[in-house]
Specification:
The protein contains 19 helices and no strands. By secondary structure, the chain is mainly alpha-helical.
């Protein structure tokens, strides 16, 4: 008898839409500063500060909501109530922020904005916590867990590219800029699509959102909040995955800071518009690499695939950096598609693809860490373990802007960031390479070191799932024997 419980592929595909449902709101709130400053009339500096502070607050809510998720048991399951309630809170808070803030007296606008934004964050965490935590019950088959990432990578690529096209090519021209007409139509799309995706995700997880799939089942060990620090301290695979994921997140967040692509494309290469075009060009290679890499993960395990993808990220970034140093970067141009441009596009696309591949593997690897905890202690706490990653993710990404600012101030950009058309000085050249290549390489090296101490390869996971299944069977037999003895005793008493 197999010790794996599996899901139908289409149900895994449906549940992956839970992450897409929350990413729709993440994408929508990327434009909230345009509403707050352009419609409500709040200060740019104040709103920027508030949004940064709210992201830090977001991180601190994660462990608390993760704890509540682990403690929840209802006739509707553990995860579905959080998905539905979270999405309802997101819809209500989005509508309230965009339709009420600008109507209030000026003295109340900022306080109201912060209060509703805080409620939005709670709803967002309710639903996002499920994405990571429910991986443990969706399937424990190592050949199936990577399937989630294949669906997730596809959905999110289509979402962010399609969403940007919707905004830039349709809504902005239609309304002539970011105004209430644009926000009303855009937010309607977001709310309806996210609600639909949430319903589909609820259907996808419905069959597995039952206590028999929670850790050891009916006999799952109870946990108090004060127990979490010893648990986190004792879960070595989780610690190593946190290091790998957080350093990779730092690298990705630094490269996404607006000043960095301006420095690389706008100053070093001399064509800032190329950054958008290249992003479109890399979509297909990125998806193909993700499909191939995650397909291999089903055969050789998540750990080996993650390590392989990290090595390839490091190698392709090194090759691209050396190539840029060997050529005149200003000769890279899509209007003059020569050898230099082709080589650049190939190396850049490969690096983006391998980087995205390792990012997509983290969520199912979190489920492995949660199963390891059940194997070691009997505790089923996927909510807490999953939200630890969210906490670190948000904390690191909130620090990336500060890191870029400090490093640029160090070379003289204290008042303004580098601008398109600035001269390429030696300090600026060095700092461009540090930010675009150096910090990502640091992240990948840290990941490779941490993976040396991450024991959850496919062989170990097979051992863990077999041990959990054996414990479940023994406890079920014990419960059955107790029931028989009780029934026999009652019969004799009669």
């Amino acid at each position: 008898m197999s010790h794996y419980h599996t899901s139908k592929v289409w149900k895994i595909g449906l549940f992956a839409l839970n992450n897409t449902a929350t990413n729709l709101y993440f994408f929508a709130m990327m434009f909230v500063s345009y509403y707050a400053t352009g419609v409500a009339g709040l200060s740019v500096v104040i709103i920027s500060t508030v949004i940064t502070a709210m992201r830090v607050f977001d991180g601190f809510t994660d462990p608390i909501i993760g704890f509540l998720l682990d403690k929840t048991e209802s006739k509707f399951g553990k995860f579905r109530p959080f998905m539905i309630l979270g999405n309802a809170i997101l819809a209500a808070s989005l509508l309230t922020i965009y339709n009420v803030t600008h109507l209030l007296p000026e003295a109340l606008q900022l306080i109201f904005f912060i209060a509703i934004y805080s409620i939005y964050i709670i709803g967002y965490t309710f639903q996002t916590a499920v994405t990571k935590a429910a991986q443990t019950v969706l399937t424990n088959d190592p050949k199936q867990r990577p399937l989630f990432s294949i669906f997730d990578a596809t959905y999110n690529t289509l979402l962010f590219v399609g969403g940007q096209i919707l905004i830039a090519s349709y809504l902005v021209p239609k309304y002539g800029g970011f105004n209430m007409g644009l926000f009303t139509e855009f937010n309607t799309y977001i709310i309806v699509a996210s609600a639909l995706f949430t319903v589909l995700a609820v259907i996808g997880i419905g069959e597995k959102d039952r206590k028999e799939f929670f850790g050891l089942g009916e006999r799952t060990v109870r946990t108090q909040f004060r127990d979490y620090w010893p648990i986190l301290k004792g879960n070595r695979p989780m610690q190593m995955l946190v290091i790998a994921a957080s350093t990779d997140k730092l690298a990705a967040s630094v490269k996404q800071q607006p000043a960095v692509p301006i420095m690389f494309f706008g100053i070093l290469i001399g064509d800032y518009a190329l950054s958008g075009t290249v992003s479109l060009i890399t979509i297909i290679p990125t998806l193909v690499i993700s499909y191939i890499g995650l397909g291999m993960a089903r055969q050789i395990g998540l750990k080996r695939s993650f390590v392989g993808g990290t090595w390839l990220s490091l190698i392709t970034a090194s090759a691209l950096a050396v190539f840029i140093l060997m050529i005149d970067p200003t000769t890279i141009s899509l209007s003059n598609l020569g050898v230099v441009t082709v080589v650049f596009l190939v190396l850049y696309s490969l690096n983006m693809g391998f980087t995205q591949l390792t990012t997509n593997m983290v969520i199912p690897m979190i489920a492995d860490c949660a199963d390891y905890e059940t194997y070691q202690t009997g505790r089923f706490i996927p909510g807490m373990l999953g939200t630890v990653f969210s906490f670190v993710d948000k904390l690191i990404s909130s620090l990336s802007a500060t890191l870029v600012g400090v490093l640029l101030a160090w070379i003289g950009f204290r008042e303004v960031f580098p601008q398109v058309g600035d001269p390429l000085t030696s300090p600026l050249l060095v700092m461009t390479f540090v930010l675009f290549f150096g910090i990502p390489m640091f992240g990948w090296i840290a990941s490779l070191i941490s993976m040396k101490f991450y024991a959850l390869d496919n062989k170990k996971m097979a051992e863990i799932q077999a041990a959990i299944a054996e414990k479940k069977n023994k406890e079920n037999e014990s419960d059955l024997n107790s029931s028989v003895l009780t029934a026999t005793g009652t019969e004799k008493g009669i």
